[in-house]
Amino acid sequence: MTHRPARDAKTSAHGLAAPGPTADAAPVPADPAPQDPGTAAPAEPVLSVRDLSVRFRMRGGRDIAAVSDASFDLRPGECLALVGESGCGKSVLASALLGLLPRNATTAGQALAGGIDLLAADERTLARTVRGRRVGLVPQSPSAHLTPVRTVRSQLRETVRELTGARKTALRQATEAAAERAAFPADHLDRYPHQLSGGLAQRAATALALVGDAPLLLADEPTTGLDRDLVDRTVDELRRHADAGHALLMITHDLAAAERIADRVAVMYAGRVVELTDARAFFGTPGPRHPYARGLLDALPERAFAPIPGMPPELGDLPEGCAFAARCARTTSACGTLPALDAGTACHHPHEEAPRA
């Protein structure tokens, strides 16, 4: 497997100039898209990820395995929710797809979007062809992606002009329409990022990401800082983006938001995808098959409200076998071997039946 150093990101995730720098398991087969019997073959994936791995080289030569051998497809009109505890590698995966990793990161594998391998593309290709045009991003930390010395209107207007070609009166109207699409209030358009609350900054970043109607949208915690009504409005707008024939990868801690709009769910633990399944089966019956994934749902207040015992392992000191074994009630000696993702679950002892009431 060829390892490639990360590129420096000199442009924003929207494809425009930024004021400064931004911050070996067996191959997993492609996951099939849900398909009714007798229907035509599924559309070609908007994004096809194979064996994506990210390593960070720390001082002293220590390596951090942030993402390991992630594989999945994402097709037009589909929303995949990527969930898991903080620090499991979800946001690192998104940053790798856009070339926004720091200098001490190396990537391996392949991520094809529109015929371009996002992991191998140079910075010029990413800035001029990918970011904002093929792939849009709702960032996890919007204030870090908004230019601090320019108003929201100025940044939104520039993005609209560059990605749509609108000019003069049409540009002003399109700018205001873009703000409304993300529920960003018109009377705040002439404010600077430091004058915005966290929720307003999130909505500004969402508005910027939606402008180009990119075939693929990466939404990294898009509901951070929003109240429940705005959460629903935001995820519904993201769902409309997918329903228009685009693909959506939503990274979130908000399982209620994921249940509202996702077609499929991918669960990450300690840098690996441990479950990849249909959203209706995940949130309903039979429920998650991986013990960790089931634990995530059981920890919700509206469910069992039972926290998962223990703590996740350090990514720089992962065990040779299943990383969840130390926290799992189903652990046996078999768990000393790393489980492959088989039939959508990476577990030696997956749940086979629906949980009892």
Short description:
The complex is composed of two ATP-binding proteins (NikD and NikE), two transmembrane proteins (NikB and NikC) and a solute-binding protein (NikA). The protein has ten helices and eleven strands.
Mind explaining what this structure looks like?
Residues 17-28 have a biased composition (Low complexity). It is a peripheral membrane protein. Residues 1-46 are annotated as: Disordered. Residues 1-11 have a biased composition (Basic and acidic residues). This protein is α/β, with parallel strands linked by helices and 357 residues long. The chain has a single domain (3-31, 43-336), classed as P-loop containing nucleotide triphosphate hydrolases (Rossmann fold), CATH 3.40.50. The chain has helices spanning 90-97, 123-130, 142-145, 152-164, 168-181, 198-210, 228-243, 255-261, 279-283, 291-298, and strands at residues 3-5, 47-57, 63-74, 79-83, 105-113, 116-117, 135-138, 216-220, 247-251, 264-269, 272-278. β8, α7 (228-243) and β9 (247-251) form a beta-alpha-beta unit. The model is unreliable at 8-30 (pLDDT under 50).
Characteristics of this structure?
10 helices; five-stranded antiparallel beta sheet; ATP-binding; Rossmann fold; transport; ion transport; 357 residues; alpha/beta
